[in-house]
Each structure stands twice: as structure tokens, then as C-alpha cells.
UniProtKB/TrEMBL annotation:
<protein>
    <recommendedName>
        <fullName>Auxin-responsive protein</fullName>
    </recommendedName>
</protein>
<dbReference type="Pfam" id="PF02309">
    <property type="entry name" value="AUX_IAA"/>
</dbReference>
<keyword id="KW-0539">Nucleus</keyword>
<dbReference type="GO" id="GO:0006355">
    <property type="term" value="P:regulation of DNA-templated transcription"/>
</dbReference>
<keyword id="KW-0805">Transcription regulation</keyword>
<dbReference type="InterPro" id="IPR003311">
    <property type="entry name" value="AUX_IAA"/>
</dbReference>
<keyword id="KW-0678">Repressor</keyword>
<comment type="function">
    <text>Aux/IAA proteins are short-lived transcriptional factors that function as repressors of early auxin response genes at low auxin concentrations. Repression is thought to result from the interaction with auxin response factors (ARFs), proteins that bind to the auxin-responsive promoter element (AuxRE). Formation of heterodimers with ARF proteins may alter their ability to modulate early auxin response genes expression.</text>
</comment>
<comment type="similarity">
    <text>Belongs to the Aux/IAA family.</text>
</comment>
<dbReference type="GO" id="GO:0009734">
    <property type="term" value="P:auxin-activated signaling pathway"/>
</dbReference>
<keyword id="KW-0804">Transcription</keyword>
<feature type="domain" description="PB1">
    <location>
        <begin position="1"/>
        <end position="66"/>
    </location>
</feature>
<dbReference type="GO" id="GO:0005634">
    <property type="term" value="C:nucleus"/>
</dbReference>
<dbReference type="InterPro" id="IPR053793">
    <property type="entry name" value="PB1-like"/>
</dbReference>
<keyword id="KW-0927">Auxin signaling pathway</keyword>
<dbReference type="InterPro" id="IPR033389">
    <property type="entry name" value="AUX/IAA_dom"/>
</dbReference>
<comment type="subunit">
    <text>Homodimers and heterodimers.</text>
</comment>
Length: 66
């Protein structure tokens, strides 16, 4: 991983599944918060997305990891 916290590159070869990638991204961005956090729950609501080569936004996990 390199770059600014909000413009990082991630080498997907370092992860074997979406779950590992999700945990790494959660750790990478844990220093950022939006609004108030509800400390009674230990989860944050977000959806992982990426922009494909055609410029379309895709949900991470919609295609097989391989």
C-alpha cells in the first residue's frame, strides 16, 4: 500500500479473499470518520466499490475473487 490515505494503491496479490481485503481496508481507513460514531455497536456501514476499466462503479464481491 502506498500513497495518501485516501488515494492508496492496494496490491490484491497480498490477499486471498474479499474478507482479507475488507479487513485491510478497514484498518487503512480507521483514522477517518464521517459524522458521529455509535459506540454501542462495533460495526460501520459501508460498501466496497471499485471503478472498472470502462468507468463503471462495481460492487466488490460481485465477481469471483479469482
Amino acid at each position: 500500500m502506498d500513497g495518501a490515505p485516501y488515494l492508496r494503491k492496494v496490491d490484491l496479490r497480498n490477499y486471498s479473499a474479499y474478507k482479507e481485503l475488507s479487513l485491510a481496508l478497514e484498518k487503512m481507513f480507521s483514522c477517518f470518520t464521517i459524522g458521529e460514531l455509535n459506540h454501542s455497536s462495533n460495526w460501520m456501514e459501508y460498501v466496497l466499490t471499485y471503478e472498472d476499466k470502462d468507468g463503471d462503479w462495481m460492487l466488490v464481491g460481485d465477481v469471483p475473487w479469482e
